[in-house]
Amino acid sequence: MHILFATDGSDSAGVAAELIAGLTWPDDLAVDVVHVIPGTAELFDGTWPAIALGEADQIERVLHAEAQRVVEEAVTRLDAPGRTVRTTVRVGRAAALIADEAGRFHADLVVMGSRGLGGLQSLLLGSVSNEVVDRSPAPVLIARGATIRRVVLAVDGSHISDSAAALVGAWPVFRGAEITVLSVADTRFPWWSGVDSTGTNYEAYAETADLERQGHESAAAEVAAGLRNGGLDARSRFREGRPTDEILDAAAKIGADLIVVGSRGQTGLRRMLLGSVARDVLHHAPCSVLIAREAAPVAPVETDASASRVGA
What we know:
By secondary structure, the protein is an alpha/beta fold. The protein has helices at 11-22, 40-43, 49-54, 56-78, 94-104, 119-125, 128-135, 159-170, 200-229, 243-254, 268-274, 277-284; strands at 2-6, 30-37, 84-91, 109-113, 140-143, 150-154, 178-185, 233-240, 258-262, 288-292. The protein contains twelve helices and ten strands.
């Protein structure tokens, strides 16, 4: 198995490193530690760019020295018998380069810390973790805690949630965890449709809602049964309501350490207007979140000419 650990040396990255170090992984685990130094555009696009430009050489030397310290500290935390830990330092836009490295290394998982951005600040400014979730060809684990003992796996019967369930069933990190397989039927009456709640159209809606409930309940039960057949501690739960709210509430009630949810990785205007369950969960969950989706190619990213790689 191959993990890409993106670190900036922050406390939240330290939590992510602690999580990786404390979990059970395959014996042939390889970890690539990636640290990204801001490129020229990011470095000198400040309030006093002219002053910064005059100290460019010194600033770059300091940044590279700090980068070396950050990756070496990560190696110390993650090194273990039978485990390969390598380091890479690159220069440019962090999110784009992390996703690029995930594709280049054919990573099975990207792990990052989270600063917990949410609400208007996240909408307007974004964050490295949000963009990596959008761009990464591999599942992304945003760590907000150092353990995985109780897990909520959100499913809906789609191919994307099937991928999330397969991931939980295959990775040894979930052995010994209590797994709640949750499916949420959003059967709220579509008030915007103009349908008369007393007419025949409402009756048709009610029949459809019943089928929706049955489908979601069956989806959760089938996934839980499959996980139990694989030796995992799994049970199914069914809820009705707004999916994000129900997932977060279920996680809070069992004290979940991790929520696993699938995402199609929507980007751009469509994501901003429509949102997604995965993105809402990522923004508001107090625990770690694993975003799983089918792999998609990530185009190489043009980087600063001073890009460098450290270690092998």
